[in-house]
Give the backbone structure.
Amino acid sequence: RQRQMCIRDREKNVDQPFHDCKILLGEIEKLTLVKFDATISARIDTGATISSLDAYNIQIYRRNKNRWVQFETKTDNQTITLNAQLLKYVGIKQQATKEDQLRPIVLMDIKIGQLLGSYGFSLSNREHLKTKALIGRNILGHQALVDVSKKFVQSGECGEVPRPGERFGGRGTFLRSVSATGRRGRSDRCSVSSRTATPLSLI
């Protein structure tokens, strides 16, 4: 019945967010860099505007009149060298300093369980942090709910393997919904859709 309601909402207005058809994510999830067959534990942050990836030894070069970035990053079990096309630079505000830090933005093909797509990542040194990737609102958009009491929901390591149409949440469970504008809400249920996620924006 829940699935039928979602289908009816989609037929009424394709631009309407599917509030009852969202992917459930824990506080930390397994992020797969599809083209490089690499897996990184990523923290889910509903307060971050753009996602971020650990990077060092960053070098900018040209390929076929386009700018590319070569950098090293740490996965869960090794250090790898990646090459990705440079989209732009953005200024990121730092709490420790008053000046914005200029960071390159690269486009990455990723997979987080049932969520799949191409998204922008800022490159920064996350050596001092436990997780080497951060998933922000440019990926979460209107397509995810975050349960901060759980970890690795999409990979099944938390003991719960999400299935299409399965309901999550309930009494005593806090689920944080995310919008592209950063507004947060509460919901006591979530129906997981097996659809491929469509990026709301690249950055």
User: Anything to note?
Assistant: Residues 2-19, 164-174, 180-203 have pLDDT under 50 and may be disordered.
